[in-house]
Task: inverse folding
């Protein structure tokens, strides 16, 4: 097992109460489990907020010790062709469940990666085997799921974890692993994880491999994320018409943290709102961030685009 996956499995929720930040969803799904009956489910939300964990908890609560025999878990990003639906899914769905629950569960992770042909085949399978099988579909973007499949499911939308939930998870892991969190490490972990619990655990574990005392420098370095203060310093230099100094510091930050141009422009966008310039100019710079990112995605030279953006920031610093 890779080192980055050990803590993710170790601290995966075992009970409904262990899943943070999704209270309304949990309340409804608990009721389904207690009745031992549920519709097909579609779980939609960003990565690392508990969709897969919730699906496993549902299976364990419904089937007890026999949950592995009654659950088929497929990652649709690896196996996303029509043959998977026609062979693996159908073969599992057509047999009855073991135990007193009248259906099995098929969990399709990242099902928004399924091809349209596979989704068309899936909608018929969901109808034909509804008596013996329930589907739990997980997706980051519901817009990529066909409307006929969405209409067959109860849709639950997951939110990014709140700050207090993330801090609670950090405290729990730090206590269990005897870690010392120095200074503003919690804020740094929350900043780089962006509400993604899986990313949080991987970064924390990687930092812990260096020693039991975790520092904010180690967090930013391990996550390949620049410190917000450094990004803000670059922008302030550009606003003061010190373009060459801003460019030099930008190059240093990119090299020190191994940032790509897209990573850098996304961090820049977050720091623009704290600049000491009129709101109108902040809006113009954010609009420019979007344009620069699009150019990078289309293949433009990253350093040239970042320099062009710094030029825009310098122009915003001139008094009207």
Result:
């Amino acid at each position: 097992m890779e080192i980055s996956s050990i803590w993710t499995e170790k601290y995966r929720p075992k009970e409904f109460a262990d899943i943070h930040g999704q209270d309304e969803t949990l309340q409804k799904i608990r009721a389904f489990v207690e009745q031992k009956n549920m519709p097909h489910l579609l779980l939609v939300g960003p990565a690392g907020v508990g969709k897969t964990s919730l699906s496993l908890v549902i299976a364990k609560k419904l089937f007890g010790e026999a949950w592995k025999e009654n659950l088929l878990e497929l990652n649709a990003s690896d196996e996303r062709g029509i043959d998977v639906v026609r062979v693996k899914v159908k073969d599992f769905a057509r047999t009855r469940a073991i135990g007193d629950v009248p259906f099995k569960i098929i969990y399709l992770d990242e099902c928004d990666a399924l091809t349209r042909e596979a989704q068309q085949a899936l909608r018929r399978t969901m109808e034909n085997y509804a008596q013996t099988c329930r589907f739990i579909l997980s997706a980051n973007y519901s817009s990529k799921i066909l409307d006929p499949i969405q209409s067959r499911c109860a849709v639950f939308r997951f939110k990014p974890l709140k700050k207090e939930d993330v801090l609670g998870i950090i405290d729990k892991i730090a206590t269990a692993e005897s870690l010392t969190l120095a200074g503003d490490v919690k804020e740094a972990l929350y900043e780089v994880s962006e509400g993604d619990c899986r990313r949080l655990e991987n970064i924390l574990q990687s930092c812990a491999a260096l020693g039991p005392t975790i520092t904010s420098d180690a967090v930013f370095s391990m996550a390949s994320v620049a410190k917000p203060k450094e990004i803000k310093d670059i922008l302030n230099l550009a606003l003061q018409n010190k373009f060459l100094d801003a460019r030099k510091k930008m190059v240093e930050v990119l090299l020190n943290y191994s940032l790509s141009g897209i990573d850098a422009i996304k961090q820049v966008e977050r720091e623009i709102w704290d600049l000491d310039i009129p709101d109108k100019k902040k809006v113009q710079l954010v609009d420019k961030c979007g344009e620069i990112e699009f150019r990078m995605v289309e293949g433009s030279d990253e350093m040239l685009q970042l320099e062009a953006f710094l030029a825009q920031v310098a122009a915003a610093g001139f008094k009207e």
Notes: The first strand starts at residue 40 and ends at 44. The chain has three domains: 22-157, 163-223, 228-317. The chain has a mean pLDDT of 86. The beta strands are 40-44, 71-75, 104-109, 133-139, 153-157, 180-181, 213-214.
